[in-house]
Design a protein that fits this description.
Elements: E1 5-6, E2 21-26, H1 29-32, H2 34-41, E3 45-49, H3 56-70, E4 74-80, H4 84-100, E5 105-112, E6 115-119, H5 121-126, H6 130-140
Parallel strand pairs: 1-3, 2-3, 2-4, 4-5
Antiparallel strand pairs: 5-6
Length: 144
């Protein structure tokens, strides 16, 4: 299994992070979907965090500080789909990017029923705005 580090335990000034491609993923994902984790972690520094164990403000501040100090080349966020806790990790990555005022590329991946799917930053944004989602559902007349 690819090595993984605890997001909240690593120093934001660690040389392991500086200029690297980072994978930020939910702590349960390497256990529940080890093959998907291994593939996503190739060539990246893997950092795990459980959003049901950490407050989103702490995680967001940590991510913003990592972005500001370590200047990662890219960030990939990988979580389980359908988990409200996991959705927070995607939202906080986008918020951290705004706070750090950087153009670091953030890629969002979710696992749904054992399959990997990429979601856009726009979908992450919409996940915070139920009224906008409702408008889209009404416009497409779809019931999920």
């Amino acid at each position: 299994m690819q090595g993984k580090l605890e997001l909240m335990a690593i120093s934001v000034t660690s040389p392991l992070l500086r200029g690297k491609d980072l994978l930020i993923c939910s702590k349960c994902l390497p256990i529940e979907h080890s093959e998907i984790f291994e593939e996503a972690a190739k060539g990246r520094i893997a950092l795990v965090v459980c959003m049901s164990e950490e407050h989103l403000d702490k995680v967001g501040f940590k991510l913003a500080t990592i972005i500001a100090y370590a200047r990662p080349s890219s960030i990939t966020v990988l979580t389980m789909d359908g988990s409200p806790h996991c959705t927070q990790l995607h939202v906080m990555a986008e918020q951290a990017k705004r706070i750090a005022q950087t153009d670091v590329k953030i890629r969002h991946l979710v696992v749904e029923k054992g399959a990997l799917m990429e979601v856009s930053s726009q979908a992450v944004y919409l996940s915070r705005h139920l009224s906008k989602i409702e408008e889209l559902l009404r416009a497409t007349k779809k019931n999920l």
